[in-house]
Amino acid sequence: MTILIFEGKEMGTQLTLLESIKDRVAIITGSGRGIGAAIARKLAQAGANVVINDINHENAESMAKEIQSMGRRSMVSTHDISDQKSANELIKEVKMNFGRVDILVNNAGITRDALLHKLSEEKWDEVIRVNLKGPFNMGQACAREMMEQNYGKIVNLSSVASMGNIGQTNYSASKAGVLGMTYTWALELAKYKINVNAVAPGFVESVLTQQIPPEIQQKFIEKIPLKRMGSPEDIASLVAFLVSDSSSYLTGQCISMDGGLTAGL
């Protein structure tokens, strides 16, 4: 489906929403399945070459093959991006294979839920390392390349849980931290024509939400004005817009994609 958003001065000149993504090089962390895989698929459909980063090699390999079946170039990465040396090595390999880095989507994340008085130091450290240090490592490494190019798009996946959620002290703190980085990077990198934005998904269909008993899921859904869970494809469509040149005047923002859950708060 072609979405017309602009008609040029010359008769018949038309630009599509995702046209500017064609042949861009996109790195998506945690893209072996779920929301990350949906984003990878969406960007590949728009013509991007995609780096699939996931610590699960089987999932990453399967997703990369799917990208290649669309006629796009792909690369498999199992680098642990929460380790700075590993993240830097990933960017070097992407540069060797593709010559540039245009798009970074910091999607990888984990949960290790527990009430405050039961939250172990190990669970705290693990979530902060993956969810906050990981995006920092990738953002820093990619920004260096994007600054030289004088072009780049960074999208960080936060969460409505950044506003607080029972049993998620570590997760909520990490996602609030992601927002702080997003706003700061937007200010620092704007002069290099690098757009930095965040997406805060609400209750979205995923491997994690599938583990929630149906009756509890229904209670969550009743609180959502649109009365349904979001899909990974919903999030992917928004990310595709944010990494396209159609969003060139949008930076330093967090868009809550939650079916209206946080409206009025």
Description:
There is one protein chain. With 265 residues, the chain is of the alpha/beta class. The chain has a single domain (17-257), classed as NAD(P)-binding Rossmann-like Domain (Rossmann fold), CATH 3.40.50.720. Helices cover 43% and strands 16% of the residues. The strands form 2 sheets. Strands 5-4-3-6-7-8-9 form a 7-stranded parallel beta sheet, sandwiched between helices. Strands 1-2 form a two-stranded antiparallel sheet. Helix 3 (84-98) runs parallel beside helix 4 and helix 4 packs parallel to helix 5 (169-189). The protein is globular, with a radius of gyration of 18 Å. The two termini are 35 Å apart. The model is unreliable at 1-14 (pLDDT under 50).
List its traits.
265 residues, Rossmann fold, seven-stranded parallel beta sheet, two-stranded antiparallel ribbon, globular
Within the CATH hierarchy, at the fold level, what is the topology? Answer: Rossmann fold
Q: How many domain modules?
A: 1
Roughly how many Å is the radius of gyration?
Answer: 18 Å
Q: Helical amount among residues, as a percent range?
A: 40-55%
Low-confidence stretches: 1-14
Compute the number of strand runs: 9
Number of helices: 8
Largest sheet: 7 strands, parallel
Q: Which strand-content bin applies to the residues? A: 15-25%
* Spatial gap, N to C terminus: 35 Å
* Lateral strand order in the biggest sheet: 5-4-3-6-7-8-9
Approximate shape: globular
- Quickly name the level 1 CATH class: Alpha Beta
**What is the H-and-E element order?**
EEEHEHEHEHEHEHHHE
The CATH homologous superfamily corresponds to NAD(P)-binding Rossmann-like Domain
Q: Which structural class is indicated by helix and strand composition?
A: alpha/beta
Mean pLDDT score: 93
